[in-house]
């Protein structure tokens, strides 16, 4: 069985965590400003239903025949509107309570990262060449990897640094469990993003 690092992806411009975090902050300021005011869960269902369509981004359920073994995909084709496809399980999860909603929320936010960061670049390449060059993920450093960038973006809007600071000041120290419960995301997502941020002093419990 091949590693996921053997996947071929289109090369993209390198981006640092700080740059992606700033993009995430700007997106929240526009779409969900309350997320920057206090530690709380992001209402991803409201984004999908009400906010993103205003900006030409549409999240739609798709069948396994359309998605294959993926749970989400973002279509780079087109000129203006952007379509994000998610599996029917992910779609149903958006309407569920935590913890069933955890995976659905992170999947949609990950694909939103692709829509905002990568689709504009890929559309320009398609316009010029009508084909997308690809390379193996194993050849890329993390900040050059579109998947790493999309996960970093997802973390930046699901648990923004500004409110993580607030949480730490309130409790003195933050744990993965506290972050997971506060933002209604999975412990794995919480732990992975805190590591990306190089957050000092967080604990697993």
Gist of the model:
By secondary structure, this protein is mainly α.
Which structural traits does this protein have?
205 residues, single chain, 3-stranded mixed β-sheet, mainly alpha, two-stranded antiparallel sheet, disordered N terminus
List the helices and strands and how they pair.
Layout: E1 8-9, H1 17-31, H2 44-51, E2 57-62, H3 64-67, E3 72-74, E4 82-87, H4 88-94, H5 101-129, E5 135-136, H6 146-158, H7 161-171, H8 176-183, H9 187-196
Q: Care to describe what's here?
A:
It is a single chain. The chain has 205 residues and is mainly alpha-helical. Helices cover 51% and strands 9% of the residues. The chain has 9 helices and 5 strands; from the N terminus they run βααβαββααβαααα. It has helices spanning 17-31, 44-51, 64-67, 88-94, 101-129, 146-158, 161-171, 176-183, 187-196, and strands at 8-9, 57-62, 72-74, 82-87, 135-136. The strands form 2 sheets. The protein has a 3-stranded mixed β-sheet. The chain has a two-stranded antiparallel sheet with strand order 1-5. Helix 4 (88-94) packs across helix 5 and helix 8 packs across helix 9 (187-196). The longest helix is centred in the middle third of the chain and has 29 residues, at 101-129. The protein is globular, with a radius of gyration of 17 Å. The two termini are 33 Å apart. The relative contact order is 0.17. Residues 1-5 have low confidence and may be disordered.
């Amino acid at each position: 069985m091949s590693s996921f690092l053997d996947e071929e992806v289109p090369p993209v411009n390198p981006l640092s965590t700080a740059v992606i975090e700033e993009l995430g902050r700007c997106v929240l300021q526009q779409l969900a400003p309350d997320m920057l005011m206090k530690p709380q869960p992001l209402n991803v269902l409201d984004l999908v239903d009400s906010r993103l369509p205003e900006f030409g981004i549409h999240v739609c359920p798709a069948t396994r025949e359309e998605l294959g073994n993926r749970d989400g995909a973002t279509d780079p084709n087109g000129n203006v509107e952007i379509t994000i496809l998610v599996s029917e399980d992910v779609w149903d999860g958006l309407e569920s309570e935590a913890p069933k909603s955890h995976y659905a929320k992170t999947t949609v936010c990950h694909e939103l990262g692709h829509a905002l960061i990568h689709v504009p670049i890929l559309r320009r390449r398609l316009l010029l060449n009508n084909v997308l060059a690809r390379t193996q993920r194993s050849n890329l450093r993390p900040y050059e990897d579109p998947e790493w960038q999309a996960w970093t973006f997802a973390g930046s809007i699901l648990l923004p640094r500004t409110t993580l600071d607030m949480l730490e000041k309130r409790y003195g120290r933050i744990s993965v469990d506290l972050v997971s419960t506060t933002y209604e995301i999975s412990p794995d997502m919480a732990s992975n993003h805190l590591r990306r941020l190089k957050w000092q002093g967080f604990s697993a419990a």
